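R.M. (postdoc): so does anyone remember the format we settled on? I'll just put the structure tokens first.
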């Protein structure tokens, strides 16, 4: 497999505030990841079919795709077009141009099986974008795995011939996000009023990552990452 490990794209660094999950924030690794995906989807031909597997409660990226967009989840939710298990999608072989699967693999017992299913439904030359958590707290009863960049790349290489692992949130930003989360949790448990100052932690971490090259390296030892995104393609065939 031709695998590249790359740090967080610099186009989102130091620019204007990015619309994140909780409003507009200057630094948010997930918002940068989503912008990266938005940019890729915007380049697709109008005839493309995009399927979001494990979409959850929102139809994320549908406006960006502006193509035929289908969302599926294991649960019957208002956001889904059809209910399905990610390991057995009711889609024909080679019928999809782009498959999205964000923060799903950590919730399944056999991630490799799900990756194989995503590859099955992709047309030759199709693209898969799979994100997974790295240094984040456990966030669900069915939350089984955490990944390094190398680990995600190795897992993906069993299915896809080529791809890149992108790192969103380097060592200090990951530490800042954890500090923000556990500070908020501590205040909640102690029934103390919330303090907005905790939001400075990831901002300072992001600044440190920009000025410390080793902290965003996906291959150096002793580094952390907040979130990882594998972007792979299926062979074009004969």
């Amino acid at each position: 497999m031709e695998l590249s490990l790359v740090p967080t794209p610099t186009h989102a660094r130091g620019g204007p505030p990015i619309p994140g999950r909780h409003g507009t924030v200057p630094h948010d690794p997930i918002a940068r990841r989503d912008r990266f995906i938005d940019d890729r989807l915007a380049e697709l031909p109008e005839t493309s079919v995009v399927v979001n597997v494990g979409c959850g409660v929102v139809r994320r990226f549908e406006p960006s795709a502006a193509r035929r967009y289908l969302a599926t989840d294991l649960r019957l939710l208002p956001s889904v077009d059809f209910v399905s298990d990610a390991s057995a999608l009711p889609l024909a072989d080679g019928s999809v141009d782009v498959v999205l699967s964000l923060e799903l693999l950590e919730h399944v017992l056999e991630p490799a099986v799900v990756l194989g299913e995503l590859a099955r439904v992709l047309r030759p030359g199709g693209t898969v974008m799979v994100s997974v958590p790295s240094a984040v707290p456990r966030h669900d009863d069915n939350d089984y795995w955490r990944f390094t960049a190398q680990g995600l790349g190795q897992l993906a290489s069993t299915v896809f011939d080529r791809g890149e692992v992108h790192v969103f949130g380097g060592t200090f930003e990951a530490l800042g996000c954890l500090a923000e989360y556990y500070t908020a949790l501590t205040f909640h448990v102690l029934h103390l009023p919330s303090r907005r100052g905790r939001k400075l932690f990831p901002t300072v971490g992001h600044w440190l990552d920009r000025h410390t090259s080793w902290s965003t390296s996906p291959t150096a030892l002793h580094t952390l990452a907040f979130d990882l995104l594998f972007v792979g393609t299926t062979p074009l065939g004969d």
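R.M.: ...and that's the designed sequence above, right after the tokens. Also worth knowing: Strands lie at 2-6, 18-20, 23-25, 49-53, 68-73, 82-83, 96-102, 122-133, 162-168, 227-233. Helices lie at 29-42, 62-65, 111-121, 149-157, 171-189, 200-210.
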